[in-house]
Amino acid sequence: MRIGIVCPYSLDVPGGVQNHVQDLAETLIALGHRVSVLAPADDDAPHPPYVVPAGRSVPFPYNGSVARITFGPVSTARVRRWLTRGEFDVVHVHEPFVLSVSMLAALSARAPVVATFHTAMTRSRAMAAAQGVLQLILERITARIAVSALARKVQVEHLGGGAVEIPNGVAVARYAAAEPLSGWPGPCAPGSGGTLGFLGRFTEPRKGFPVLRRAFVDLAERRPGLRLLVAGPGERETLLEEVPPALHDRVTFLGLVPERDKPRMLRSVDLYVAPNTGGESFGMILTEAMAAGTPVVASDLDAFRRVLDGGRAGALFPTGDHAALAAAVGPLLDDAGRRAALAARASQVVAAYDWPVVARRVLEVYATAIEAAGGVAIDDAALGDVTLGDGTVGDVGMGDIGTGDDGQLEEQPG
Amino acid sequence: MTSGATTMRGMWSVVAVVAVVVLVAMYVTWLAGRLDRLHARAAAAARALDAQLLRRAAAAAVLAEELAAPELYAAARDALDAAPGEREAAENDLTRALRLIDHPAGGPAGEAVVAASRRVELARQVHSDCVRDALALRQRRLVRLLRLSRRHDRPGYFDVGDTTLELTPPVPA
Fold first, then answer.
1. Which of A26, A153, A296, B70 is deepest in the core (most CB within 10 A)?
2. How would residue A23 be classed by pLDDT, with cut points 50, 70 and 90?
3. In chain A, where does the domain assigned CATH 3.40.50.2000 lie?
4. B60 touches B76 (CB < 8 A)
């Protein structure tokens, strides 16, 4: 399949949508598809070969943070040229409601458009005001994907219409194979040692870091050798607020770690703690820790409970309760067998979030969009590990029933 | 002097009226084009859904033969042969019949049924969205006033329940 993917945010800065787009593109390429990613990026900045830069981006406040976006006549021309040259079978735009190349591509594409909604935008007043404009964009989109049930709910309630829920993927193999940081996680025995991990913005209240900090302080006073490994943006002083000076050398702060070092950090701890107090629409960090083979202790939020298979693939504690967290962590650090059991169940659960599995579900949506635009059924063989243009047309038990142009995708030159 | 000003004013009024007429005509043309596009989209989505339903019923028939399950075979046949008015009920019956089969995913025939069911669900969702968009535009006052949609049949939803057989991987809220 020839697939054009459009990312609204600059690839020069890290971000969830950008990571998602690049992982998806790389997985689809590995599955034998031809993928081009259009995204704002500096022309001279290094980027992967499948990326087509859509020009420099400007800062734009969006959804509580600053996104770098590209919009305007120059971008429009670049989007059109990219669409024409790509001759895509399907165009996959991410966050098409952001003023960006995604929106431009959705409006100009002739190929069927699939759209993925990442953010659960709960503010509906702006949406209601712009309803007419948004409807014009929606009419250009054939199939919609939401990465979480929350994002899907917004689709259904505010925009009408359905969206297929396909979760964020995680590159399981990359996480599972990562080398722990040297000297970590260190000894962990009944009654002593052990390392707890936290990754993310510890200054953001919703992430619940203070809950973990209090639990750590309580436990560390009783448990010699217990350590805490934290990575994320912020200052060490802020991190260590309310931590007694005697315990300071047992807290290691890595600062902001680049995306490629996340797996190593997650492999360097005995337990990953997700003390979030709410607002998390998808437990991405949980699936990452699970992929890394690190047992997880998480707040009992709906989203987390679902990822953790009701508590079988990770321990749950009442949200915001630091004493309960300490009570859950202590026995787990004493019990290597239970940690291993949680990690084993987690690795089974996380297989459903592995990028190749997720990408195949996305491919089914592509096929549905192509079919709906053309009024035909195409063959599933085009979705799997089939290199384009090899001409195999598998007949999936259709017998004597013709469904139109089966295998029409293969007829087009790869 | 006065008559000159009146003439000027008269000319400007004419220009204004012509401009408004042109703008309205452009808007109506655009609206008609949009209506055409949405109806064509809904019709194509309906054909794709039809193809996926046939594919599912055929896959179910193959599975029924493999398992020697006459009820399932009959349900598949009914879905294939159903008259337009009975199609929704027949497809729902087929979904029910498929759910009665234990572990349909075992073996290639079972897997084909599970995959086809998933694709029916996707096609149905896309079709519903297309129909909803077309119906919403048909409801517009101007569209009804000018009877812009008279050239198009009113698209209808295909009202069947969720056809997926296996629980998809747990999706976090």
1. A296
2. very high
3. 2-169, 173-352
4. yes
Number of Cβ within a 10 Å radius of residue A182: 7
From chain B, the residues in CB contact with A373 under 8 A are 41, 44
**CB–CB contact B170 A283 (8 Å):** no
Greatest mean pLDDT among A45-54, A151-160, B71-80: B71-80
A352 touches chain B (CB under 8 A): yes
CATH class held by domain A173-352: alpha beta
Tell which residue, A274, A236, A275, has the closest CA to residue A255. Answer: A236
Q: What are the residue ranges spanned by the domains of chain B?
A: 2-151
Contact B130 A302 (CB under 8 A): no
**In this structure, are residues A147 and A116 in contact, taking their beta carbons and an 8 Å threshold?**
yes
Amino acid in position A214: R
- The tokens describing A148, both together, are 């979480």
Residues of B in contact with A309 (CB under 8 A): 170
Considering only the beta carbons, identify the residue of A149, A361, A375 that sits closest to B48: A375
- pLDDT per residue as tens digits for the range A146-166: 887 777 777 676 666 678 888
Share of chain A above pLDDT 90, in %: 33
Residues of B in contact with A399 (CB under 8 A): 58, 61-62
Contact B47 A376 (CB under 8 A): yes
CATH topology of domain A2-169: Rossmann fold (3.40.50)
Interchain contact, B51 vs A404, CB within 8 Å: yes
Q: What residue spans of B68-158 are helical by DSSP H? A: 70-81, 87-100, 107-139, 141-145
- In chain B, whose CA is at the least distance from the CA of A353? B169
